[in-house]
């Protein structure tokens, strides 16, 4: 196309007009007020799993890609800064397909017989991945069995449902295996401990409302309570008083809520650390009736074809969609932890869907924006207390006080235009804080952005439309007290 002189003149003039628009928007900053008098739940962290041998994809990567990938997952300044690793406690005879091999391939003849544990020092790649996580400062390791070994179950198989023998409702003629299963879980945790990884939480069920061809074991909340009453004193006797029991990994929020009420009515609520739910069969909404902490421990987009988009019209694999999902769980449903399903997966599995954060394709990897949605939450460290945050239109705001006294503010801009955001810390004891901010959108991944701090301490930075911004206020140098 050949342009006339007058057309060229229009083009030359255009940038001036366009550039005037954002600066007008930036002047009208939207104010978000952080309220320290409103105190909500304590945050345990954010994480992912390397179960089903996916951890091996990282083990098998060559340098420098291996370290790059570990940084993407665990680094608190350049990656997602994940703080929880959920490991599958294997129950299968081998590690083919999606199986995870057990440390007890053969049970003793009777429940009180001496178990012949076999430790392969790998645990489907999960031990190595956990050891790397320790180096990055990760302290929360959740060991989660999908099932007891088949030899302890009503159906003699770790797959296809069935129940733990000894639980009411299980039809078994081989005795009560509750204590043997508790000992087995404790042994697994001790093996990790001996290898430098302290297991902090244990779960003994996965999706007990779903029977499938890989490891699965049925249970309702009342039946789970029967086992919890054996596991808790067994952990205490093994000097593992600080290991929390999580239960029961329901396929969705409504079943998890049933589990919570059944565990409470069975008198085992105070023996549980967290009620755990997935989000597949029913999404998280409202708050669960429990005195325990609540964790979302497994969810992903199982249907969408591999997508690395931040925003593509609200697609189920979009980073922006996941930012909202995690935000909703933490802010509207009182979650103390949000754990994604697989951290990494290959191209071949499940037609290269979105159930992973990072695609590991042979010796290469591709990062999805879902990872960066989680990275925006990395300013919220384990032990943080959620506090009040409100204000601004089209802004979803959340605020947290970290254990070190720093204040994290995580905001989603639901609007389509660039927005300047001002954060006022009302009632803060932070003196002359240093403020940093990072944002993610279609073309940025937790990229540092300039912050202006006013004399009254209000911090202002800009975030693009459908972007996400995280602020971190760290205490300034201590003022010298008057003599
Ligand atoms: C995290 O990333 C930063 C920036 O690349 C790097 O300097 C630091 O060494 C990394 N931390 C760890 C524990 O590897
Ligand atoms: C637990 O700790 C106590 C005190 O340190 C010790 O005497 C006991 O042997 C330990 N028990 C186990 C099972 O490790
Ligand atoms: C939120 O969870 C905590 C436990 O972490 C619980 O004490 C509190 O009652 C819950 N709040 C609501 C509104 O459910």
TrEMBL record:
<dbReference type="InterPro" id="IPR049161">
    <property type="entry name" value="GH59_cat"/>
</dbReference>
<feature type="domain" description="Glycosyl hydrolase family 59 catalytic">
    <location>
        <begin position="44"/>
        <end position="376"/>
    </location>
</feature>
<dbReference type="InterPro" id="IPR033452">
    <property type="entry name" value="GH30_C"/>
</dbReference>
<dbReference type="GO" id="GO:0004348">
    <property type="term" value="F:glucosylceramidase activity"/>
</dbReference>
<dbReference type="InterPro" id="IPR013780">
    <property type="entry name" value="Glyco_hydro_b"/>
</dbReference>
<keyword id="KW-0732">Signal</keyword>
<feature type="signal peptide">
    <location>
        <begin position="1"/>
        <end position="20"/>
    </location>
</feature>
<comment type="similarity">
    <text>Belongs to the glycosyl hydrolase 30 family.</text>
</comment>
<protein>
    <submittedName>
        <fullName>Glycoside hydrolase family 30 protein</fullName>
    </submittedName>
</protein>
<dbReference type="Pfam" id="PF17189">
    <property type="entry name" value="Glyco_hydro_30C"/>
</dbReference>
<dbReference type="InterPro" id="IPR017853">
    <property type="entry name" value="GH"/>
</dbReference>
<dbReference type="InterPro" id="IPR001139">
    <property type="entry name" value="Glyco_hydro_30"/>
</dbReference>
<dbReference type="GO" id="GO:0006680">
    <property type="term" value="P:glucosylceramide catabolic process"/>
</dbReference>
<dbReference type="Pfam" id="PF02057">
    <property type="entry name" value="Glyco_hydro_59"/>
</dbReference>
<feature type="domain" description="Glycosyl hydrolase family 30 beta sandwich">
    <location>
        <begin position="383"/>
        <end position="430"/>
    </location>
</feature>
<dbReference type="GO" id="GO:0016020">
    <property type="term" value="C:membrane"/>
</dbReference>
<keyword id="KW-0378">Hydrolase</keyword>
